Every structure is written in C-alpha cells, then in structure tokens.
Amino acid sequence: MSSPGASSQTQSSSTTTPTHRHPNLSAPSMLERTLSSRRVNSCADGDADGDADESKTKKNQHILFRITTRASNYLSRIAGSGSFYLPCVIILLFIFLAFSFLFTSRGFVCISSSYSPVSGAGFFGFDGLDSDFGSLGVPCCRSKHGKTVEWTSKDLLKGLEEFVPIYETRPIKNNMYGMGFDHSFGLWFIACWLKPDLMIESGAFKGHSTWVLRQAMPDTPIISLSPRHPEKYLKKGPAYVDGNCTYYAGKDFVDFGSIDWPNVMKKHGISDLNRVLIFFDDHQNELKRIEQALKAGFRHLVFEDNYDTGTGDHYSLRQICDQSYIRGGGHNCFKDSDEARIRSRRKKFWEKAVDIEELCGPDEAWWGVRGFMRDNFNHSNKPISYAQHFQNSRYIESILDVYWELPPVAGPSLTHQTRYDPARAPSPIVEDGRYGLFRRLGLANLDNSVFNGYTQMVYLQISEQ
Ligand SMILES: C[S@@+](CC[C@H](N)C(=O)[O-])C[C@H]1O[C@@H](n2cnc3c(N)ncnc32)[C@H](O)[C@@H]1O
C-alpha cells in the first residue's frame, strides 16, 4: 500500500496495461482554451449537440422555407394576375413564417436537445411520447454568463472512435458499482481535452476511473482519495493500481474536505490551480464538495453521479438546479396532472424513471429526494425547505462559468439500455436509428450492460473568485 507522498508501482490483474495517446483529438493545451465565450441559450448539452442541433434546426428551417416558397408560388398561381388576392397571400405568408419561427427557434430557455421531436421514443413505438419529451424536459444549471464548452458533437464522435479500442483493453471488465462505458468515455474525453497538470479523484473503488484518467494523460500525476485502497481488491480479482499516483487510501485516507490542499499542491509543484482537474465519484453531497473545492481554489470539476430529482444517494447539481424557472425543472405533486400521467407511463419502460408518488414526499416536497438533501451514500440526509433549495440553486448559478452534461453515447434503441429515462437526458451522441455509425464505432461489440450506468455526468467550471 502506498502512502501519501509516495508513489506505488503499477500493478493490475493484467500484466501490462497499455496506455494510449490520443493523436486525433486536436485539443488546445491550456485549460483556459477549453472554453469559448460563445453564448448559448440552450443547456450545455448544448454544445455537445451544438452542430447537430444547429444543423437540425437549419434543416427544419430549410424545409419550411421550401414549403413557404412553394405555398407562395401556388397561391400566386391561384391569384393569377388578379391583384385582389395579393394582400391575402401576403397575410397568409406572414402567418406561416411566424409559425415557422416559433417552431424552429430554441428560445430563451434551458432547452435540452432531448426536446427535439426527433427522439428515440419513436423506436419503441410509444404513442404520443414525442410531446412528453418537451413536457418533462431536461433541467440544467445556468452559468453566470451563458458560456459553454468549446468541444462539439463532432469532437465527441471523433473521441468515441478513439476511445472504444482503448476501453476494450480495460483491466476491470466487469465494473459493477463503478463506471460503465458512457462515463468512462466522458471522463477520458474531458481529461484529454483539458490536459491538466494534475488529476485528483475522490472515490476510486477498484481503480477503474484511475485507469481511465491514465489512458487520457499517460504522464500526468494523479492523486487518489478512497477509504479502501484499490490494491485490496487485487486479492479477489481484477483491480488497477497506478504507478504515478499518490494514494490517500486505507489507513492514509483523508477526506477531500480535510486535506491541506495548499501544502499538497506545493509538494506537487502546482502553482496554478486552474490546471488541476478534480473528479468526484464519492457519493457525497455535491453542494458540499463544490464549497470545499471553491475554498481550495479548484476550478475544473467533474461529478460522476449527477442524479436526477427523486433519485440517488446524494444531493446533486441536477437536483439543485431543478427549479421552476428552468424548462423541465420544478414539479408539482398533483396526481391528476399531465406530468403525473407522463411519469407513470414512462416508469413502465425505464427502471430509473420516477412516478409522482415516488417523486413527492410529505407536504408535497419533490426537491432533492422527497424534500431531503442526501449525503454520503444516503447514510446522512436532512430535510431542506423549498426556500433553501431555491437559494442553493441561486448560489450555484452565481459561481458557475460552465455547466456541461455529458450526453449518453448512444440512443436506447442501439444500446438496449433500459435503466435511465432518455426524456431526462440530453440527446445521445449517436442518435437512435444510426446503427451503421454505432457499429462502425465498435459500440455494437460491447456488452449491453456497460451502457446501463449513465447518470448525467457533469463538467463544471467554477468562475475565478
Ligand atoms: C462508486 S465507487 C467509485 C467507482 C470508481 N470511480 C470507478 O470508476 O470504478 C465509490 C467509491 O467512493 C468511496 N468513498 C466513500 N466515501 C468516500 C469519501 N468520503 N471520499 C472518497 N471516496 C469515498 C467508496 O469506498 C467507493 O470506493
């Protein structure tokens, strides 16, 4: 077992664990350059889907333009040479264009790409569920100035192409209770793109996420905090222990909130905290973790389990930002409502979907989990008032530069995942129906079970304080 300050030797169940470079991801080398000052009105799914969504919108507008043009031609023909019809034609065209705009503009709301009527639901043959996507929607946290990440859906696709063969070499093939494919890809992609000088993970389990970080950055030091040292798992089966990682684990375990970070940063020769990436997979209240990270001066955070309202064992960003002023956010507990009906229908299809009875606790408290702020694998939980919940969201918005939820890698008709409700997730990178692409990327060769663990992993950039 290694102790803080000392590096252990690399060992894993497989004798050699290849590390891979990522020649194709033409990422900027400085963390600052990962962000664009482009302002978007949509949720940060945002930019993952930016190109696709934009082009989808453009395509729709294009089609509508063609229809209006044809309609106008047709009407002009009817009108013939008579000037009597001309004002009617112009009025009709005006109404048509106004409708076109209404249905194609994304508006000043936090609209996720899952709002798109071109959704996976159709593949399951659910009647009328297209509109349900709009009704449930996908809430997200608003950042201070509406900035989003620089990477696009094209970058994510390119990343997937590169990551699938890497993932196939993972030492822990069955990582039950740890990360599956979606989040492994997300973490790898973010680390590749940001190219930090130091990576810190809180919550290592058998070491799969440590291995993912190592694949992204072969020579970058890692600090890993976990009550049980991953090497302990080696006795029973596959695990991963990294040679360039300082473990605060086992008897040397210290919680993230209790570490003397200035001292540890000094030991690692880190003077710019903007070049450090923190990965949390420790099932602690995310509000608490953000406050601790902020106090230490860290700015780039990834949370693995960004549970939706009514689910999960800790208070998450998704829960915090589920507010009435956000599209898809805020709920009511009326049993005889559209939301209640939609929820109960979706529950039949998706294991993790939550119906109105589950969503609502005593006194119609729906926020957090039935009005509770859970922490530490739900070993602790406290009731919070709606006012407090609202304040938490305002606080988060006041310190957030970027909020970006990783989209699922592929739609449910491709992955056959049945756990999370796609209506509560951004549009997938590989959309339903694109089996050719799914196969070409090598995703069809992976076991279906690796796609079941998606919980809206999120990347945050905290603004400079
Ligand atoms: C879901 S597992 C992590 C999975 C891992 N990241 C992976 O990819 O396979 C959660 C881990 O958090 C650890 N944990 C529990 N409390 C913790 C704390 N306060 N700080 C850091 N890790 C903690 C648990 O022991 C467990 O190993």
TrEMBL record:
Residues 1-18 have a biased composition (Low complexity). The keyword Ion transport does not apply. GO terms for cellular component: endomembrane system. Keywords: Membrane, Transmembrane, Transmembrane helix. Residues 1-28 are annotated as: Disordered. The keyword Ribonucleoprotein does not apply. It comes from the Eukaryota. The chain crosses the membrane at residues 84-103. This is DNA-directed RNA polymerase subunit beta.
